[in-house]
Each structure stands twice: as C-alpha cells, then as structure tokens.
C-alpha cells in the first residue's frame, strides 16, 4: 500500500519534469529555426523564447486544420483564414492573468531578394489572454479588436516562399493608448518595422514566436491541384535557408515584374488613384 503510494508520488513528481523537458526541446528547436531561416536578425535582433506560440489554421472546405511547426511550408489555401493562436508555458505565473500583444509580419515583400516593401504587417492585436477555466487553457483569446486585422499571405508570382513571422510580447499597461498612434486605420501594412514599433510602445523582449513559409500560387496549377496537394503539406518542413538563396525555386523574375506592373496599371486606371493604389497594393503584392 505504502509502496504504491510512494510510487504514485514519484510519478507525479516526474510528470512536470517530463513536460518541461519536451517544452524546452521544442523551445530549442524554435530558437534554432529562427536563426537558421535568418528570422534573427532580419526581423528580431535576438530571440530567447520562454514559451511556445502555436498557430493553428482552421479547417476549411478544401483543407484540414494545420498546426504550424516552425519553418513549415504552407500554401495560400491553407493560410487563407485567420488562424488560432495558443501559448504554451511551463510556468502558470507567466501566462495567468497576463495580457499579450501578437504581431505577424512578412520580411520578404515583395520578394526575399527585394525587400523594398517590407515588412508587410499581416496581423497586429493586443489584449490576448489565456483562460485556465476553458477547454483549451493554452488558447489565446483577444479581448479587444485587432489594430490590424489578419490579411492572408499572397506572395507574388515568381517569388520564392516568404517567411511569415509571429511574435508574442507581454503587454504593457498603457499599450491600448500608445499603440493607436503608431498603428491605426490609416496605417499602411507595408514598410512596417516591428523593432521600431516594439521600441515605440515599450514592448520588452519577445516571450514566444513561430513562423512558416508560403509560396506563391502556381499560375499554371488549377485550384483543384492546389487543394489536393494540401493534406500532405501540413507536416512539410521547408529547407531552412530557402528564402536566403537566390530564386532557385522560383519562376523567372520577369513574371514577378509583369505581375507588379499589372497591379500598378489597374490602380492608375481607377478614378480614385490613391485609394485604389493602396487597395491594389494590398491585394497584389504579398
Ligand atoms: C527538434 O528537432 C530535432 C531535429 O530536427 C528533432 O529530431 C526533434 O524531434 C525535435 N524535437 C521536438 C520536441 O520536436
Ligand atoms: C493540431 O493540434 C491540436 C491540439 O494540439 C490537435 O487536437 C489536432 O489534432 C492537431 N491537428 C492536426 C491536423 O495535427
Ligand atoms: C505546439 O506545437 C508543437 C509543434 O508542432 C507540438 O508538438 C505541440 O504538441 C503543440 N502544443 C499544443 C498544446 O498544441
Ligand atoms: C488570477 O486572478 C484571479 C482573480 O483576480 C485570482 O483569483 C488568481 O489567483 C490569479 N491567478 C494567478 C496565477 O495569479
Ligand atoms: C523592388 O520591388 C519594388 C516594388 O515592387 C519595385 O518597384 C522595384 O523596381 C524592385 N527593385 C528591383 C531592383 O527589382
Ligand atoms: C474564463 O472562461 C470562463 C468560462 O468560459 C468564464 O466564465 C470566465 O469569465 C473567463 N475568465 C476570463 C478572465 O476571461
Ligand atoms: C477578436 O477578434 C475578432 C477577429 O478580429 C473580432 O471579430 C472580435 O470582435 C474580437 N473580440 C473582441 C472582444 O473585440
Ligand atoms: C495613425 O498612425 C499613423 C502612423 O501610421 C500616425 O502618423 C498617425 O498620427 C496615427 N493617427 C492617430 C489618430 O493617432
Ligand atoms: C527597423 O528599424 C531599426 C532601427 O530602429 C533598424 O535597425 C532595422 O534595420 C529596421 N528593420 C528593417 C527590417 O527595416
Ligand atoms: C507548379 O506547377 C509546376 C508544373 O505543373 C509543378 O511542377 C510545381 O510543383 C507546382 N508548384 C506548386 C507550388 O504547386
């Protein structure tokens, strides 16, 4: 009787350690992936996460749900809808009763070789919390509207895959007031600088992060091809340095130039040149 009791105690004592070990191995992997894909230094000067940030793209008519592992290569259809975010920490104090700021940026716009429009801000929101008394105690739920709503990846034709980088920060008390003077309805998505923003609104070092790649839609591939190609891709991992090599996996760069020109022509043809250009940029470039 006593022996069983002590054995149970031993198992109970070991459990947190086992979880902590797998978490720390995952943290190491994410940290390494950030360096290998040059997310450090391209997006962040340094990255030493203390929690895991998971991204799950929802089930849609053509796709099953996708859980992102750092550096996974995904498709446009898989990433078309706003994902769910979760925060996994081995320390309750680190997440309980805390609020978080989430940013998702593309440092490769319009292409990894020509980043003149980067960063492109795909999502920015504050007041995210986890709730221990729900079914999924790691799920991050927003308590206020996003500063910049989710915009799905649309890298231009001919571009190698872009990196899409999620960064999670602990939220300062005055964030809601200060952030709006830097990102609001009139702020363009391109030419965003996460480091500058973070400094301006006094965000401290990121506590978690994750990233994935998305390549352009294949102009020759039909939508049915894209859809049937997706299930296997949920576990696919991109070669870490894809984005830094030259356009080896891309179509000729002239295709990209033609695409951009088409967008510009459409924009100029519109009566409301400025508004149209902004909208067309959003639709065409990334
Ligand atoms: C971390 O990455 C290594 C090498 O890619 C892999 O073998 C290992 O399973 C990963 N660890 C976890 C916890 O996913
Ligand atoms: C994604 O993760 C969730 C929670 O960890 C799990 O329930 C689900 O089965 C996973 N989905 C896929 C497609 O791996
Ligand atoms: C978070 O993502 C990692 C890597 O894909 C996965 O191994 C882990 O099970 C996920 N955790 C949760 C709680 O979904
Ligand atoms: C979170 O806040 C609630 C209500 O204020 C409190 O009861 C609880 O102890 C807090 N939890 C932690 C881990 O601080
Ligand atoms: C870089 O991209 C911008 C925006 O699409 C474009 O105007 C510019 O010509 C490109 N520069 C080069 C060197 O291709
Ligand atoms: C957490 O979820 C429970 C159950 O849905 C809800 O009653 C409670 O108000 C939530 N707490 C917070 C801080 O959002
Ligand atoms: C959370 O974000 C969603 C999607 O942007 C939005 O519709 C919802 O209103 C937000 N929740 C709150 C409480 O503001
Ligand atoms: C909105 O953001 C822009 C920067 O994109 C800033 O110049 C402007 O002052 C902000 N507007 C307000 C009302 O804070
Ligand atoms: C963002 O701004 C910082 C200085 O505030 C600069 O060092 C960095 O190169 C900029 N990042 C990008 C991607 O332009
Ligand atoms: C694009 O189409 C070519 C030719 O059909 C094919 O080899 C390639 O795998 C496709 N790429 C993607 C991302 O669908």
Write a brief caption for the model:
With 286 residues, the protein is an alpha+beta fold.
Q: What would you say this structure looks like, in words?
A:
With 286 residues, the protein is an alpha+beta fold. The protein has one domain (2-284): Phosphatidylethanolamine-binding Protein (Alpha-Beta Complex), CATH 3.90.280.10. 32% of the residues lie in helices and 19% in strands. The chain is built from eight helices and nine strands. It has a nine-stranded mixed β-sheet. Helix 7 (253-269) runs antiparallel to helix 8 (273-284). The longest helix has 35 residues, at 2-36. It is globular, with a radius of gyration of 21 Å. The N and C termini lie far apart (65 Å). Residues 8-18 and 221-285 have low confidence and may be disordered. The protein binds 2-acetamido-2-deoxy-beta-D-glucopyranose (10 copies). This is RNA recognition motif containing protein. Residues 1-20 form the signal peptide. Residues 223-255 have a biased composition (Low complexity).
Query: How far do the termini sit from each other?
Result: 65 Å
The quaternary structure here is single chain
Secondary-structure element pattern, one letter each: HHEEEEHEEEEHHEHHH
- The residue-averaged pLDDT reads 77
Strand percentage lies at: 15-25%
**How many helices in DSSP terms?**
8
Secondary structure category: alpha+beta
Hetero groups bound? 2-acetamido-2-deoxy-beta-D-glucopyranose
The CATH homologous superfamily is named PEBP-like
Radius of gyration: 21 Å
Q: CATH first level: which class? A: Alpha Beta
Helix content: 25-40%
Poorly predicted runs of 5 or more residues: 8-18, 221-285
Look up the CATH topology.
Answer: Phosphatidylethanolamine-binding Protein
CATH architecture: Alpha-Beta Complex
Q: Report the strand count.
A: 9
Sheet bearing the most strands, described?
A: 9 strands, mixed
Protein name: RNA recognition motif containing protein
Keywords: Signal
Pfam families: PBP
